User: Fold these one by one.
Assistant:
Number 1:
Amino acid sequence: MVSCCSVEKLPEEKKDGLKVIALAGNPNVGKTTIFNALTGLRQHVGNWPGVTVEKKEGIMKYREKEFLVVDLPGTYSLTANSVDELIARNFILSGSADVVVDIVDASCLMRNLFLTMEIFEMGVKKVVIALNKIDIARKRGIRFDVKKMEKILGVLVIPTNAKEGEGLEELKKAIANMAEGNVTTNPVIPVYEEPIEREIEHISSLLRGTPLEEMYSIRWLAIKLLTRDQEVIKLVLNYLGSGKMDEILKHISELEVHYKRSLDIVIATQKYEFIDKLMHQFVIHFGEVKETFSDQIDRILTHPAYGILGLLGVFYVLFKFVFTIGSPMQEFLDNTFASLGEFVARFIGNEAVRGLIVEGVIGGVGSVLSFFPLVFLLFIAMSILEDSGYMARAAVVMERIMRKFGLPGKSFIPMVLAFGCNVPAIMATRTLEDERDRILTMLINPLVPCSARMVVITFLAGAFFSDHKALMAVSIYAISLFLALLSALILGKFVIKGEESPFVIELPEYSLPSWKVVVVHSWERSKEFLRKAGTVILLGSVAIWYLSTYPEPIGSGLSYAEKLGKVFEPFTMFMGLDWKAAVSLIFGIIAKENVIATYGIVYGIGESEEALISLMQSAMSDLQAFVLALVTTLYIPCIATIGAIRAEGGNKWALVASAYNLLLASVVGVLAYNIGLLLGL
Amino acid sequence: MGRLDEVLELIKEGVRTSKEIAERLNLTVEEVDGIIKILESLGYVEKVEMTSSCQSCPLKKICPGSCVVFKGNLHELKKSDKKGT
């Protein structure tokens, strides 16, 4: 581990007599681009001593002279809160660098100059500022008086657009001149309010005359002591002794009382305001703050009321897109599997083997696999929503609703994740510190329909609601989410809410999705569906086929599946569901897609999906299909999700979640069916 | 009270997006995002890794990425050292 203030200089043999140039700056300011431009292919990549943080070095040539360029980790400040910051801070403190090139983003200069001021406060004189991304700043209407900026900051400032190579020759020249000692600088130092300055002077007076004065900027040490930097406190304690250190700490406490908060935020705030004042002297035009396209759309999509309608509307369009494009492809695949079954059946003489292959494997897995186009299109649609930036807005809308229902705001993370898969969603409840919040979120999370349950919803919507498929699918999603929120409200009465940790979301600008990213991402996700079809669903299909065929074929009343289904039928009949639905739901606990695979076997042995749908339509009303979709979405979570709840919350909560979901599905199923009957549906 | 303090206060109050904070304080969203980064480096807020559960998911080996994710960063007020309280 790198310790603060361990002033380890770059070994002389490594420097090889070369002047050392350190590149510092915030992350994503174009530091790597500048490093590559300065060094070309003359690079070496290793690790910083004792840590696994990448260290890049390279040789810069300028007019026959060579310089060793060291790329420091990107940081926003030089506090001691991260390894990256410590590495950058220690390297600069060590004095190994003959020149520090501070790369700043001209398009958001305020936060970049915060780091610059910290470098200046460390007493570093030889600093060149690369005012990078100047092109973006120009586009935004930001204009600088560079000469004035140099004068005010007291160092050289070179405007650059590293991507286009603009200003890089000037930067090289400035670096070389400064390294050779041909440039005089006088970096500006932030000035704080009088009480802080008085204490800086007091501490400085105590430090003067100690060996520390030779190694560090006394002012920097004083400021770091005020911010209670533990490493600096330890360092100074060695030289001042506990008596003087206690006196310093007492003064710090008095100042904290005066400002009513920690001095690190006080000093940071004053430094920030100091930078603002400086900027007003050399920034000619700050650019106009216009309402962007994203802002205009967000007025609707993140609005407390319209946002909810927007969310439902987006999901309606999503399903419409999936069904409109996917249904013909699904039918084609379905017919292909039916033909395949017929074709294979001709070559298998043994009845049992033929049944297993044609009805169990091709019938069961095929009925699920025929949904691949719909699944792929759904993932395409979801990827578009993610890549366009909409999902972050959906998260904001969901978070606002969830808070109203007593859920901790941050539980929107597992809730959003659950649309893909409930297992990582359950694991994401770890982001909630409060145990009770975690349990509450874990209990309601399985009520969010995952992609597996989407397949079942899609199947039943397609089979029974040909004119209103998308509306049916969205209504199942809406009911499930509403029940999740209602459950949170009810369970929250029993599970006491803990203290919430406030957070803030940075919304990205809307952008056109990258088609490459969308297709690759969707394919990667869809592969899981195919893999599942080849493993869990295949095994499930074989098991269902066996139970449906032995000891006597289905329909005889003697097959194991019928017997199993009949056990539960007296219970499911209150929801209008027969033994076939009951046995499907039982196998659906292994993997939700098995609900369809089971129907594919128990209803349509040897039949195409067209025939299966026809058989189902003759045996089931639209209302019953709707109830089945609802119950499938709400009842006991799949085995993997139960396992995740058990791993995260223990046996007790896995049992509670299963029991609660079963109870909720039963109540909702019975109510939905009977209300539907009353309404004449 | 400076801008860093004001942003921190609004986060504590429960303002959830940097856009809302920017509107309240009459700042640009970029500036608010920048202030949040500074607050993060000072240890007042910390970034929440939203996809970390995908990385440690027991189904990771068989799942190439079912997790629904979204662009954008989320920072929460740090509790451990009581700085943010």
Number 2:
Amino acid sequence: MDDPGQISEYGKILLMAIIGIVLVSATILLARVLSPKNPNPIKLSTYECGEETTGTSWVQFNPRFYVIALIFLLFDVELIFIFPWATVFGNADFIAVDHRWGWFTLIEMGIFLGILIIGLLYVWKSGDISWIKPTHQRPSVPVAIPASAYDQLNAKEYSIKDYKEQDIKEELAEKAASPVKMGFKPKFKKPSSES
Amino acid sequence: MSLDQQLQQNNGVIIAKMDDLLNWARLSSMWPISFGIACCAIEMMGAMAATYDLDRLGVFPRPSPRQSDVMIIAGTVTFKMASRIKKLYEQMPDPKYVISMGSCSNCGGPYWQHGYHVVKGVDKIIPVDVYVQGCPPRPEALIGAFLELQKKIEEQSLLKGDIFPMAVEQ
């Protein structure tokens, strides 16, 4: 180990790192040199399954999804552990060797799931998976006028003129007979009048 | 002498032209962009799955056109789809190849006469390298198409500018 001709364990890691960096950068450089380049505007456009991109990608997600996603991730990982367990749990060979194998693994997985279920209960209890809905508060201004003062006004019915084709025709004829004057007098600036 | 023969005969030492080496690398890893338009895609999936195992030819579907070399047009190309296909084709890096799979994409297939909505052959919008006949073609036919494409790539030369004469001039 003290022999300077020998590479220490750290030296091996250093060598691996150097070789790794050189290999990766050499490959990328080689590809850069050899690969044909043929860019055009369509090729450089954003890939979105062949669709035209619309809108901005900087959309805001509701933070409520974040907590749910975090809890989902926990149980997603749990599933990964259950799958390998399930392959050896019912193994007939292991049970034949020791009949306690099935019970042992079952209890083991029960403890594992139990810890996670306690975690879920905790999350549930602390209200993190309940979809928080804000309670809307209607702002009110204290005024002395009671709502009943408006009752008469609200109950009032407004009669709408019943238009029929005949009436419209007559009305149009009347309008045509007496053209409406313009509400203003148009003025035109002439370049000669200025100065 | 091919590269495989050299590997066996010359104690594993291979002497090759750069072009041959590049072509060997390219034809051994033809990655198609994974999308299927119609029923031909079912046969394409069958060809890629365990029974026919296209993976042994290095054919491995990619989720993005940026990583893919081959485009398999597996199905009926409608006018609505045509613009998407064109865009996806343009987004693939060069050199790129197209396999037209099945009658629909070859010439319009059963929609040839009365299909108001079908492009009568995908070669009307993008250049096609290999046509596969059938409606739909069997997986063997698709594998055959890849073998044909391998032959085509083998004869090309990236460095001499067979594919991109423009690139060499620059």
